[in-house]
TrEMBL record:
Record keyword Transport present: yes
One of the record's GO cellular component terms: endoplasmic reticulum
Keyword terms: Endoplasmic reticulum, ER-Golgi transport, Golgi apparatus, Transport
Name of protein: Trafficking protein particle complex subunit
Subunit-structure text: Component of the multisubunit TRAPP (transport protein particle) complex, which includes at least TRAPPC2, TRAPPC2L, TRAPPC3, TRAPPC3L, TRAPPC4, TRAPPC5, TRAPPC8, TRAPPC9, TRAPPC10, TRAPPC11 and TRAPPC12. Interacts with SDC2. Part of the multisubunit transport protein particle (TRAPP) complex.
Primary location class: endoplasmic reticulum
Entry's localization field: Endoplasmic reticulum; Golgi apparatus, cis-Golgi network; Golgi apparatus
InterPro entries: Longin-like_dom_sf (IPR011012), TRAPPC (IPR007233)
Species name: Amphibalanus amphitrite (Striped barnacle)
Function: Core component of the TRAPP complexes which has a function of guanine nucleotide exchange factor activity for Rab1 GTPase. Plays a role in vesicular transport from endoplasmic reticulum to Golgi and autophagy. May play a role in dendrite postsynaptic membrane trafficking.
Sequence similarity: Belongs to the TRAPP small subunits family. TRAPPC4 subfamily.
Amino acid sequence: MHRVLEDPEQYPISLKFGWPKLSTNEKIFLASMFYPLFAIASQLSPEPRSSGIQVLETASYQLHCFQTLTGVKFLAVVDPRQTGVEALLRRLHELYADFALKNPFYSLEMPIRCELFDTHVRSALESAEKLGVANV
């Protein structure tokens, strides 16, 4: 049996702790559960023209929703202690606008297939993680 910590060739070791990544099916399930709640909250709100749910809080996580003026929603599941999630979601919206909406070959509601978009999103998430902002 190979022991990683006993093997000098394994150094430096980079350990990263966090929640396990959600599978695609889990993301779809979470989104499909969120959208009806969002619509109900918008209709039941005493505020006229309410934008619905912005943050859904539980003891173990928060679900943040950033809705654009066009109705596109960006969701982030984060630790309840995280701060600055809205700024991160705004940055992701900027990247979406720059790399998807300005692309004449992109079709709405389709996956974004753009290496440059992926690179910028990864960079934004890494920067946010270093600052302790969010695990999206």
